[in-house]
């Protein structure tokens, strides 16, 4: 039953990605990126990862789109037409893709309950998290907040660092900024 | 290459296709915003790859429903280990095999909290072994065991999404700065400007 939804969503994802690659108008491309994020969030929901789906919908389709649109407002709207169609990158991508597809032939099949990823680490942590976290029903939250708590702390540090870096990069130096503005008006 | 293999690997191939589309956008387009879009597509495809691997057939999201957490724990024991006995005594061999597969399957867990275990131990004392087996077989047959998909990929990808948006915003800030400095965000034009100066 789920494959009935699975296949169309995957096809739509592929079509959206190709459309983004072919698109010249940056504004439309960013909008299509939002659509792409929503489609992948839907697929994650089908793949039993509602937490990731929520986050992807909020962060990938929401915040990322807003950030890119505001960047676009500060820069230019149009991607210009290239003189010649890039052949080399296409072949490079094709070869890499073929190698990766060859690599998947040994992968465990979709949904296989005996795949190595399902057996290691010992899946009993799903039961244990019930006891350790005093009956918190969502195992993902339990693992994220307790067993991988340091990981989450590191993630917060990364976000803080990125925020500080963005502020430093975009900071207007008062004197320089005024000078530039005045030279622009003169010229 | 049979149909089963194609169906089993189809989603990996789509993920690889998305990945390569993102890669192509990054290396073939000169516009920097377009490159960031390409990186985003690549990144999302990696999330999808991990989430795909965590899916278990017939599984559900790793959220333990209250009815399982609150003491219907006997089901849990029936699903783990003991169930092989139960099925073995009255079921055909393929059912036994099925039960074993489920036992081996990863996050196949009925949540067993302490209260449930307590109840179970009392039940063991009260009931005779034969009755116990029969009771468990009964429980397994009427309540289908819950199978959870693997929560680990979800956890890892949650972290990756947040880190991804942090790096994206950093890249976009750099693009704004480059635009202020060079007046363009096309890579080849910037290289020309650098060469001329």
Automatic annotation (TrEMBL), chain A:
Residues 11-75 form the MrpA C-terminal/MbhD domain. Keywords: Cell membrane, Membrane, Transmembrane, Transmembrane helix, Transport. InterPro entries: CPA3_Na-H_Antiporter_A, MrpA_C/MbhD, MrpA_C/MbhE. Pfam families: MbhD, MbhE. The keyword Membrane applies. The chain crosses the membrane at residues 26-46, 52-75, 87-105, 152-170. It is found in: Cell membrane. The keyword Cell membrane applies. It is a multi-pass membrane protein. It comes from the Bacteria. Residues 124-173 form the MrpA C-terminal/MbhE domain. NCBIfam families: PRK12504.1. This is Monovalent cation/H+ antiporter subunit B. It comes from Novipirellula caenicola. The lineage of its organism: Bacteria, Pseudomonadati, Planctomycetota, Planctomycetia, Pirellulales.
Automatic annotation (TrEMBL), chain B:
Gene3D superfamilies: 1.10.287.3510. Its main location: membrane. The chain crosses the membrane at residues 12-28, 35-53, 155-176. It comes from the Bacteria. It is a multi-pass membrane protein. It is found in: Cell membrane. Keywords: Cell membrane, Membrane, Transmembrane, Transmembrane helix. Belongs to the CPA3 antiporters (TC 2.A.63) subunit C family. This is Monovalent cation/H+ antiporter subunit C. It comes from Novipirellula caenicola.
């Amino acid at each position: 039953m789920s494959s009935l939804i699975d296949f169309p969503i995957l096809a739509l994802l592929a079509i959206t990605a190709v459309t983004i690659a072919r698109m010249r108008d940056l504004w439309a491309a960013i909008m299509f990126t939002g659509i792409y994020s929503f489609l992948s969030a839907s697929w994650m929901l089908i793949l039993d990862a509602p937490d990731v789906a929520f986050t992807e919908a909020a962060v990938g389709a929401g915040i990322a789109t807003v950030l890119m649109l505001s960047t676009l407002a500060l820069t230019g709207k149009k991607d210009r037409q290239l003189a010649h169609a890039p052949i080399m990158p296409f072949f490079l991508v094709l070869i890499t893709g073929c190698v990766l597809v060859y690599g998947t032939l040994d992968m465990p099949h979709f949904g296989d309950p005996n795949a190595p990823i399902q057996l290691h680490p010992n899946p009993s942590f799903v039961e244990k998290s019930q006891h350790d976290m005093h009956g918190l029903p969502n195992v993902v939250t339990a693992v994220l907040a307790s067993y991988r708590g340091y990981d989450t702390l590191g993630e917060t540090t990364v976000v803080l660092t990125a925020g500080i870096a963005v502020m430093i990069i975009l900071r207007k130096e008062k004197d320089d900024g005024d000078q530039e503005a005045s030279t622009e008006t003169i010229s | 290459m049979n149909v089963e293999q194609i169906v089993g690997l189809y989603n990996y191939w789509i993920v690889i296709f998305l990945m390569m589309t993102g890669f192509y956008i990054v290396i073939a387009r000169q516009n920097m915003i377009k490159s960031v879009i390409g990186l985003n597509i690549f990144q999302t495809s990696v999330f999808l790859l991990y989430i795909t691997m965590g899916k278990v057939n017939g599984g559900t999201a790793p959220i333990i429903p209250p009815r399982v957490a609150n003491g219907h724990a006997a089901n849990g024991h029936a699903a783990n280990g003991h169930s092989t006995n139960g099925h073995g005594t009255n079921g055909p061999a393929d059912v036994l095999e099925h039960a074993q597969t489920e036992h081996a399957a990863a996050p196949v867990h009925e949540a067993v909290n302490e209260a449930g275990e307590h109840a179970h131990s009392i039940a063991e004392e009260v009931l005779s072994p034969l009755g116990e087996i029969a009771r468990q077989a009964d429980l397994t047959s009427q309540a289908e065991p819950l199978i959870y998909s693997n929560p680990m990929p979800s956890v890892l990808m949650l972290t990756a999404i947040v880190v991804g948006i942090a790096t994206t915003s950093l890249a976009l800030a750099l693009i704004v700065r480059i635009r202020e400095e060079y007046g363009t965000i096309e890579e080849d034009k910037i290289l020309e400007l650098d060469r001329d100066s």
